[in-house]
Each structure stands twice: as C-alpha cells, then as structure tokens.
Amino acid sequence: MTKPIRWGILGAAKFAREHMAPAIHAAKGAELAAIATSDPAKAEPFRAFAPAMAVHASYDALLADPSIEAVYIPLPNHLHVEWTLKALAAGKHVLTEKPICLKAPEIAQIIAARDAAGLLAAEAYMIVHHPQWQRARDLVQSGAIGRLVQVDGVFSYDNRADPGNIRNKADTGGGGIYDIGVYTYGSARFVTGAEPEALHCRMQQENGVDTWAQVTGTMAGPMGRFAYSAITSMRMHNRQEMNFHGEKGVIRLTAPFNANVFAEAQLELRAGMSVTTERWPGVNQYVLQVQNFGDSIRNGTAYPCPLEFTHGTAAMIDKAFAGAEVFALT
C-alpha cells in the first residue's frame, strides 16, 4: 500500500479550518499531520477530525519537521511567495492559496525553486479539478456552441462589515481582483486556452484596494478571437456565474467557483431550441485538488494546474491593473 502523504498547514486560517483541512483529511492518500500556530487554542478545531495532529509553535518549526512531506499555505496574500520559497527550500511539496503572487514575474522565482528542488509547487486553484469545468472546456473546444463570440462572468460578495478583513487591506495584498478575479480571469483561460489581447479596467477603491472592478477586452487563442468581460466586487450581494456564448449555443455555469457552498454545481447548455442541464451534487473540489496533488507526487501524473498556467492568470491580473481607470460613484 502506498504511504499517505503527511500534510502540514502554516497557520490556522478560517478557510483552512472550514475547507482545506477537512479536504486533506478526507482525501485518499493524504493525512493531516501537523499545523503551525503560536496559539494552541486555534489548533483545537482541527483536532475534531485529526486528533493525532502535531502542533508546532512556528512556521519554521513545521518546515523543519522531517515527517511532513507537503505543506498547505493559507497565509495572507503578501506572504505567499516568501513562505512558498521557504517550504521548497525545506524540501516540502507546497500548495499555496491563490493568488500565489501579487506580480506575475514573482512566479519565475517559484518555478526556478521548484525545478531546482525537484518538488511539486502549485497554486490552490481548485476549480480546474471540478468536473463541471472539465466538461465546460470539452464542450467549448469540441464546438458544441459553435464559434465562440463572448465570455462573460461575475463574482461578488459583500464584506464591508468587516474592515479588518485582510481582503480590505492594501498592505496584505487585499482587493477583489486578487481574491476573486483569479476565478473570472483564469477560468476563461482554462476553458478556451486563450490569452488576453487588450483589456480595459474600471474600478472603485476603498483604502487602496479595489472593491468593484469591470474588465472588458478581447482574448485570442485556439478558439479564435472573442470578447471578454468580467465584474468582481466585494461590495455587492453574493452572485457568481460564467457564460460562454457562441454562434450556436450558450454554456452557463451557475455555481462556478464555490460549488455546493454558493449553490449546486450545474452546467446549462442551450443549443438551438434545446436546453440540457448537468449537475454534480456533492462533488468536493478541494478533496479532488488534494488527491490530484498527491497523484502527481506519488505517480508522476500531470498536475491539472501547473505554475506555468498560474503565471498566465497572474499576467492577466497585472494587465488589468495596468492603466486601470479609478472612479467613484457619487
């Protein structure tokens, strides 16, 4: 029997507690073996499903633990590059929350460190592991909706009541584009294989971070050239969907990013006069992500979201910020 991968987590973040730690525990071939936190009380909720888990008082102490093979990093955005590089230097495979960097050129450092160490390093871009996105890609690329004309999406939530949230702080790499633009931008790239040609961004800001942004432009790739538009916001009611609109049909994903949290994952295909809906109740994309990560380590299976793909989304984010028009609603 293949030995399970022993995982450690840097920090006791809420997202790790609610999603990734349970996913590591539930995934085949994985074991949640350690967490690093200076406050032992923050580790207690993790013990509910990993009672034998070790607790290290510092991130460095966890990285020095020889029994830990892979590390998950859910730290604030501005710390991702630093601790990803430290984890690789310590000989650990590393899965880092998105965005793995705040500027695309920083990924070159991580790729170089990954290659030098012979380890797996990746951004925790969980949606590409979900079958709804693999199905969307297959349908679009097989011509199910004809020539692709437009891709549009929206991802919004409202966290104005929590000004201390790291997403509302510039010094921690906050802002809606870094937090959720990675989904509206990266998912279009994943399905179509296209890259942006020209983008224009209009945004509203508070305290130095974007709280609403609209990106429009064109993308081009194997599917040809098509129009692109996306809205992200941290000041609007919860909404998320992605649409791929062709000459002969439309594909709509109704819970594209937080499947089974926002709503059930569904793909609606409208072609001609017919409408078909596919559903994936109960599929956990975080578990699939951990399992795919482990398969890549143990079996050499190609990882669905390598850093080279991540670099393209980071470059698209950089392009969106470049020359962005900032305005205020009065």
Report on the structure:
The chain is an alpha/beta fold. The strands form two sheets. Strands 14-13-12-11-7-10-9-8-15 form a nine-stranded mixed beta sheet, covered by helices on one side. It has helices at 14-26, 40-47, 59-63, 80-89, 106-117, 131-141, 176-192, 285-299, 307-321; strands spanning 5-10, 30-36, 54-56, 70-73, 93-96, 121-123, 148-158, 195-206, 209-221, 224-233, 235-246, 249-253, 266-271, 274-279, 325-326. The longest helix has 17 residues, at 176-192. The chain starts with a strand and ends with a strand. Helix 4 packs parallel to helix 5 (106-117) and helix 5 packs antiparallel against helix 9 (307-321). It is globular. The model has no long low-confidence stretch (mean pLDDT 97). Strand 11 and strand 12 (249-253) form a beta hairpin. It has two domains: 5-124, Rossmann fold (3-Layer(aba) Sandwich), CATH 3.40.50; 128-283, Dihydrodipicolinate Reductase, domain 2 (2-Layer Sandwich), CATH 3.30.360.
